[in-house]
## 1
Amino acid sequence: MRVLLVEDERALAETVREGLAGEGHSVRVAHDGPSGLAAALGAEHDVIVLDIMLPGLSGYRVLQALRARQVWTPVLMLTAKDGEYDEADAFDLGADDYLTKPFSFVVLTARLRALLRRVAAPRPVVLTIGDLRLDPAEHRVERAGQQIVLTPREFGVLEFLMRNAGRVVTKHEILRAAWDPHYEGDVNVVEVYVGYLRRKIDAQFGRDSIDTVRGVGYRMPVLPDAYADPVGGGAG
C-alpha cells in the first residue's frame, strides 16, 4: 500500500510512518498543506492520510483542491477536534473517512484497509441521466442546460443516486455515502433530502427521476429517457 501522510506533528507522523513501514507499506510524509498537495498531485498513492489543521494550507483546502483536479485517491482525515461539524465539512468536500486524535494505530490501519476495499472503478468526470448532468469536479448540476443550485448534502445524495443508477439503494446506504459513516441520527432524514431534490431537479422540469421503492429505498433510471413514476407512488 502506497500511503501519503500529511501531518504537521512530526513525532506523530514519524510514529505512524514507522508503524506503516514496519508492515511493509510505502509511506511518503509531508508536514504542511502546500507540500502535501504537491505530493498528492505529483505521484500516485493508494490512500492519503490528511490532517485538518495544517500550516500553509488546511487539510480542507488540500482536499478541495484534489477533488477539483479530479484526484479521487481515498482520503482519511485526521482531526484533533471531536466535532460533528468538522466531520461533516470533511465529507462534504469529498473525504472518505475520518479519525479523531488520539487514535489507535491498529484502528488506523484497519480504516486504511477498509478504504482500499471500498475503492471502486475510477469515477466518471460527468454523470448524465437524460438531460440531468452532474459534474463532480465542478460541483455543478444542470438540467436541460439550466444550472441547479444544491447544498453540499443535496449534491452528495444526488451524486450517490446517479452513480448507482438502475439499482435500488436503501436509506442506510445513502446515509453512509452522503453523511458521516458513524451518523446515528434518524434515517428518515434521507426522505427530507430526497424531497428537496425532487423539488429542485424534477418539479420545475416536469420530471420524475427518483423512484421510491416502498419499504426498500430509492432508484434513479438507467435509460436516458426513462423518467418513470415512482414505484408505489409519491415521495418518502
## 2
Amino acid sequence: MSLGILLAIFMVALLFVLVSIIRFKLHPFLALLVGGLLMGILAGMPLNKAAATMAAGFGGTMQGIGIIIILGVALGTLLHVSGCTSQIAALLLRVTGTQNAPTAIALTGYIVSIPVFFDAAFVILVNLVKTLSRQGRIPFATLVTALAVGLITTHAMVIPTPGPIAVAATMGVNIGWFLLYAIIVSLPAVMVGGVLYGKYLGTQDAYREDFANAFEEEMEGDEAQVGAAAEARNLPSGSLGIFLIFFPIFIILLGTVAGMVFEKGTAAYIFFNFIGDKNIALLLGLFMAFFCLRPYLQASFHDLVNEACTQSGIILAITGAGGAFGKIINETGIGKQLVEGMTGLTDGTGVAILIACFVISQVLRAAQGSTTVALVTTSAIFAPVLASLPGVSAILASLAICAGGIGLSLPNDSGFWVINRFGKFDVPGTMRVWTVGGTISGVTALVVILILSMFTNSLPGLL
C-alpha cells in the first residue's frame, strides 16, 4: 500500500479518535481501541492480526509502565496527604520567589526525568504543581506546562533514558560529548517551550479558567485532609519531601553507574542492576516514604495504597489503549514508508540531513506515539547514511533525531493521557499544554542544533 494511502488512513483513524472523544464524548479507552482497529482494517491488516496486535500493544504498554504508574501514584499520594508537597511548594517559593516558580518547576522536571520514566515522574510531581499553583496564585497551566515540557525534553534528549542511549549507540557517537551537547541543546528548549510558553498560557483568561477550575474541587478535599494532619501534628519539612522524591532517582542512577563499573555477571553487578530497575527503585521509594512520613499520616498505609490503585485504574486503561492504537499503526508499515520516502528528499548537505533527521523522527513520533520507538527507528535509518557523509556531525544528527521525539504528542501516545487525566484537562486543553508546548520545545532544540552546526569545525567533539 502506498505512503499516501497509509497517511490518509492514519488521518481518518486519528480524526475518528479526536471527534468521538471531543464531540460525542466517547470514553477515550473505547475510542482508542476502535480507532486502532479502524486503522488496521482499512490498511488491509487481517482481522485476526488486528485483534492480536491490539492486545499485544496493550500488554506491551502495561509491561513498560503499569507498575510504575501505580507506585508513582502511591508515592505522590503519600507526599500530598502528609502535607509534604505543600511544604516543598513553600520551600520553592522561598528560594525562587513566585515570579521564578515556573523555572524552578521546569528544572525540577528536567532533572527528575533523567533517570525516572516520564509517566512516573509526572504523577509524583503533579500534586506538588497543584499545591504550588494554589499557594503561589500561579496559573496551573503555566506550571504544568513547565513540568511536562521539562520532563519530556530530558526524556527524549538526555542519557540515561532509553531513547537517547539507543540513538547514541546506533549512531556510534561519544557518550561524553553527546551528553554535553544534549544539555546545551535541551536547556534552551525547556526554557522556551516550557517556561515562556507556559507563562503565555497563564495570561490567557479562557485558559486560566479552564485549568484552574479543573482541579479546584479535588484540591478542596485534599486541603481538608492536609489540614487535619496539620492540626494533629507538625507538617514534614520541604527538604524531607525533596529527599523522598529524589531517593528513587538516586537508586536508579546508582544502578546505572554500578552497571558500568562492575563486571557483568558479578554479584555486585546483579545486585545494583536489580535495585536500579525503575520498578524496584520506585517500590523502595514508596516504602521509604511511608517510613519517613508515617507520623504525619491520618489514614493507614493500606488505605492510601488502595486509593492509589483505584486512581490508577483509569490511567492504566487509557494508556494501554493508547499503546494498542500505536502498535497497530506501527504494524501497518507507515513508519518504514515515511523514512524511505523522506530520506530521498535530502540533498546531502549537513543542514538538510539535520532537518531530515528531525522531521522523520517527529513524524514517526506523531504516527505511532512512542518517543523511544521514533528515536530507535530514525537512528537505525540514518546511521548508514551518515557513514557516507563525513562532513556531517554525527552528534548533531543524533541530537536532531532526539529533538524530533519531543513534540507532536497525539492521543496515540500514552503520555498524552497521563497529562490529560492527572492534570484534569479536557482533550483540547491537553493539546494546548502538552502537544503545543512539547512541539515548541522540539523546534527550539532544532534551532539550537542548526546554530551549532555553523561551528562544527571549531567546536570540540562535534566531528
